[in-house]
């Protein structure tokens, strides 16, 4: 039961990171390797806001969303916009951006070169204080459930719901779906596809930022923390079927649980190894993903 | 001057410079440049599979690292203190285990063949090839293409790295294999800081370039380029696309394994970081900077990026900024020079050759191919 709950929280984080990536990859065919750095920036936003502004972790959620969405917007406008249609090149360019962002944190946005250091930045590991009410555990079905993990799960569900509403109940959502199915036709119908791209990229990055806030509550924060997330999340996206919200949700759930159970049974490394093996298997035998609908 | 003449001159000049360098370098720099030449060989491997066949492998570090480990295992056993059982295994064994290589730690019998240096050297190429054949067979027979190939190879490299870190009693774990013996073949010892190891690397590099060029300018290269441009069309024309891709993927893995062995020779260690994602992607960037579809370009790209990188890490001011410069270089190369240095070279030669009839010169984006 404890293992199951840990698996749920791994899955929740995976889901939030993967959701943003799925929107970006599904809509624009851009592989954003800087997505993990959005998680990292979200986590550092939390570190800085709790240290310097006295924010608690709840207030950090919207703040991190805004900060990382802004970063996403800048990345889209400066680099990604020029690379539409060149899938592998987006992968390389965004890896470059990831390197830059990591190093910016390490050198205090460049101020470190002039001897100015901001507390909370730099190459050291950082920790974020978690409010007392989230540190307790509740007993459920004879197992101790840490409240924080439940909170993470609830946040993931809420974000999933918000994204679903956004995608299927708003004007922007229908434009986004139109662009991802047939970009040129959508543009010909008067949809400003460049603007849709830009907003989708920013929204996806923002989701990763929120995931970053939640990650910072139970993991140490460091400049290179993002890389594992982007790889795992990308695997979740392709395993679930590109462009399918529900597929991403289900595959994040499955992969999170697989990782958690194998990690408890053997160790963390085998947990990740089995996770990769499962995804490779899925990719080889169902390259369209597990949950893709046959309608198209 | 035609482009063909110019590129032959470029090759000759490059070979001459590579061969002459030890005459002017001190032992520290001889060693450094030898390592950069090792990286060049990696970049050639990338150029063969990515530039020619369009297979972007992000797991090249896996093959590189395996090559390095194979030779490092042999060289570990060649140290007298590591007989009959390597120190790293003695540190990690169960208290009452038999002190023999067959069973001192779980899986230690895998080391037995590596008592022979020759086995280590052959395994350094053959094992990566076999592994690539396995991965490639499943991938290409399932018609996995494009970015999925990149992600699958990336995942394999991550698995490899994690398994090596995790199996400390067998592999030395995070610290890898260090304190190696010097490679000695028929009484001749390769000194990593002297010209001997340098020339071993340099001659291998030249041989790899010439063989690869011979192979890729021939029929195989033409078919691979056809596959890169349009896989379905090549298939309809009757070419066995899967086998061609499998072949070049294995060759590229073998080249990476060879480079890995030479890395062990020149740096005297093998660690799991050789399989890290960042190194695999860096290799791709070296090739992209020099020109992804140009063997010589990829070589020069690796040399320049690494040389500038090590200059930057010498200076206290530039050292923290270097990753940022590197990141900007990635972005810049991808955005503004998709054919790298070789593409610029080609454009320059063709422009000067066609000075009178410049109007007729219309270069498409991807036409600057092999130098």
Automatic annotation (TrEMBL), chain A:
The protein's name is Urea ABC transporter permease subunit UrtB
Going by the entry's taxonomy, the superkingdom of the source organism is recorded as Bacteria
* Record has Transport as a keyword: yes
Whose protein is this, by species? Answer: Aminobacter carboxidus
- CDD domains, A to Z: TM_PBP1_LivH_like
Q: Name one GO biological process term.
A: amino acid transport
Q: Name one Pfam family in it.
A: BPD_transp_2
Q: Which PANTHER family match?
A: ABC TRANSPORTER PERMEASE PROTEIN, BRANCHED-CHAIN AMINO ACID TRANSPORT SYSTEM PERMEASE PROTEIN LIVH
Q: How does it sit in the membrane?
A: Multi-pass membrane protein
Its annotated compartments are: Cell membrane
Q: Does the keyword Membrane apply?
A: yes
From TrEMBL, chain B:
Q: Where in the cell is it found?
A: Cell membrane
Q: Does the keyword Transmembrane apply?
A: yes
Top-level taxon of origin: Bacteria
Query: InterPro entries annotated for this entry?
Result: ABC_transp_permease, ABC_transptr_urea_perm_UrtC, LivM-like
| Residue ranges of the TM segments | 7-29, 35-55, 62-80, 117-140, 147-165, 197-216, 243-263, 269-288, 295-312, 324-349
Which NCBIfam families would you find in this protein's record? Answer: urea_trans_UrtC (TIGR03408)
Q: What is this protein called?
A: Urea ABC transporter permease subunit UrtC
Originating species: Aminobacter carboxidus
| Gene this protein is translated from | urtC
């Amino acid at each position: 039961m404890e293992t199951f709950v840990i698996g749920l929280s791994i899955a929740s984080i995976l889901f939030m990171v993967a959701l943003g990536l799925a929107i970006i990859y599904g809509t624009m065919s851009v592989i954003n390797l800087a997505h993990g750095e959005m998680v990292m920036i979200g986590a550092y936003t939390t570190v800085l806001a709790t240290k310097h502004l006295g924010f608690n972790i709840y207030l950090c959620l919207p703040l991190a969303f805004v900060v990382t969405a802004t970063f996403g917007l800048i990345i889209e406008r400066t680099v990604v916009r020029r690379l539409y249609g060149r899938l592998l090149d987006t992968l390389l360019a965004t890896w470059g951006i990831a390197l830059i962002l990591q190093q910016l944190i390490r050198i205090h946005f460049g101020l470190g070169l002039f001897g100015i250091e901001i507390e909370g930045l730099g190459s050291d590991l950082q920790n974020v204080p978690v409010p007392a009410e989230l540190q307790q555990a509740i007993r459920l079905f004879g197992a101790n459930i840490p409240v924080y993990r439940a909170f993470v799960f609830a946040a993931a569900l809420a974000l999933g719901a918000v994204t679903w509403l956004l995608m299927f109940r708003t004007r922007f959502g229908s434009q986004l779906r139109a662009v991802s199915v047939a970009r040129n036709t959508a543009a010909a119908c008067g949809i400003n596809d460049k603007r849709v791209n830009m907003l989708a990229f920013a929204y996806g990055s923002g989701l990763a930022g929120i995931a970053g806030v939640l990650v910072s509550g139970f993991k140490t924060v460091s400049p290179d923390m993002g890389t594992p997330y982007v790889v795992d999340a990308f695997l979740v996206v392709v395993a679930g079927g590109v462009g399918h919200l529900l597929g991403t949700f289900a595959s994040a759930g499955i992969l999170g649980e697989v990782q958690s159970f194998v990690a408890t049974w053997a160790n963390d490394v085998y947990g990740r190894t089995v996770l990769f093996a499962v995804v490779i298997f899925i990719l080889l035998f169902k390259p369209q993903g597990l949950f893709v609908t046959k309608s198209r | 001057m035609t482009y063909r003449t110019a590129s032959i001159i470029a090759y000759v000049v490059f070979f001459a410079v590579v061969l002459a360098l030890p005459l002017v370098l001190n032992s520290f720099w001889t060693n450094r440049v030898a390592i950069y030449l090792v990286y060049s060989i990696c970049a050639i491997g990338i150029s063969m599979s990515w530039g020619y066949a369009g297979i972007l492998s992000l797991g090249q570090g896996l093959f590189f690292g395996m090559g390095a480990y194979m030779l490092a295992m042999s060289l570990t056993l060649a140290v007298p203190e590591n007989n009959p059982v390597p120190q790293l295994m003695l540190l990690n064994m169960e208290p009452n285990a038999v002190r023999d290589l067959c069973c001192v730690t779980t899986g230690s019998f895998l080391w037995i063949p590596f008592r022979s240096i020759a086995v280590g050297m052959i395994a350094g190429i053959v094992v990566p090839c076999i592994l690539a054949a396995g991965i490639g067979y499943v991938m290409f027979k399932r018609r996995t293409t494009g970015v999925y190939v990149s992600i699958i190879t990336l995942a394999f490299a991550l698995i490899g790295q994690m398994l090596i870190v995790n199996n400390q009693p067998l592999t030395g774990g995070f610290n890898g294999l260090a304190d190696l013996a010097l490679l000695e073949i028929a009484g001749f010892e390769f000194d990593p800081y002297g010209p001997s190891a340098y020339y071993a690397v340099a001659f291998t590099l030249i041989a790899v370039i010439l063989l690869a060029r011979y192979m890729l300018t021939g029929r195989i290269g033409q078919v691979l380029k056809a596959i890169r441009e349009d896989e379905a069309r090549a298939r309809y024309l009757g070419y066995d696309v899967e086998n061609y891709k499998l072949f070049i993927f294995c060759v590229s893995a073998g080249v990476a394994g060879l480079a890995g062995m030479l890395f062990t020779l020149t740096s005297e260690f093998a660690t799991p970081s050789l399989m890290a994602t960042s190194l695999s992607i860096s290799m791709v960037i070296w090739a992209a900077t020099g020109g992804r579809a140009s063997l010589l370009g990829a070589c020069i790209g690796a040399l320049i990026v690494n040389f500038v990188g090590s200059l930057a890490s010498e200076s206290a001011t530039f050292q923290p900024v270097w990753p940022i410069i590197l990141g900007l270089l990635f972005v810049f190369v991808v955005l503004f020079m998709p054919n790298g240095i070789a593409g610029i070279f080609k454009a320059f030669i063709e422009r000067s050759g066609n000075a009178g009839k410049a109007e007729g010169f219309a270069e498409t984006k991807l036409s600057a191919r092999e130098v």
